[in-house]
Design brief:
Blueprint: E1 3-5, E2 14-21, E3 25-32, H1 42-50, H2 56-59, E4 78-79, E5 100-101, H3 109-122, H4 128-154, H5 163-175, H6 180-190, H7 202-213
Antiparallel strand pairs: 1-2, 2-3, 4-5
Helix pairs in contact: 3-4, 4-5, 5-7
Length: 228
Amino acid sequence: MVYAESLSAPHVPRGCAVMRVEGGRLMVTAQGAAGDHPSRDVRSYEEFLGSLRVPIAEMLEDAEPLTPVYLFARTASRRTAFEATAHWPGGLVAVGDAVCAFNPVYGQGITVAAMEALLFRRHQDFSAKGCRAFQRKVARTSRGSWAMSSNADRSWVEDGRRGVLGWYLKKWQVGIVRDPDLFRRFIQVAHMVASPASLFTPVVFRRLARYSRQAPPPGRRPAGPSPR
């Protein structure tokens, strides 16, 4: 990662991530929410980058675009509770996006699908009972990632509902930019190499309480162009 700015509902609808990839190139991904989206038009896209708080536009001044601007606007999350189906047939299982489709901005879908593939490789009983048991394992595999991403996105809905977990994740958004240890803990959970339980310890609670009191009031950005 070279630079990143995270979305933060409801006051910061613009974000971006710049990552180094092979061949000495940079992959630039702009993000927008609540109708404030980057445009396919190169000039408007550059203006969008220039409005961010991190100096991404300045860093790219001497860079040469290698591709057009591509848009991906289907970011709705969807979870289907196949494990709750009363009469699941034998010989049929569901994995990946068929079970749980994540907002791609969080980068969770492929990892969760790979974990489910490992479950499938070890599974041997494809009777109706065995397939129902498999679907319950799939549901448990995606549960933590789904809770984190869906609660973060829930803050963008008009009525502002986000629940206790959504409120807690807002505290993390403040803490991870101030504390390297909190950042490492959060990234390990987000990348599914650590248990979500590591986000709920007394040490973490004390640090988050201290940093949340230091948070400056956010400012709202003006709406940008819609995708074209």
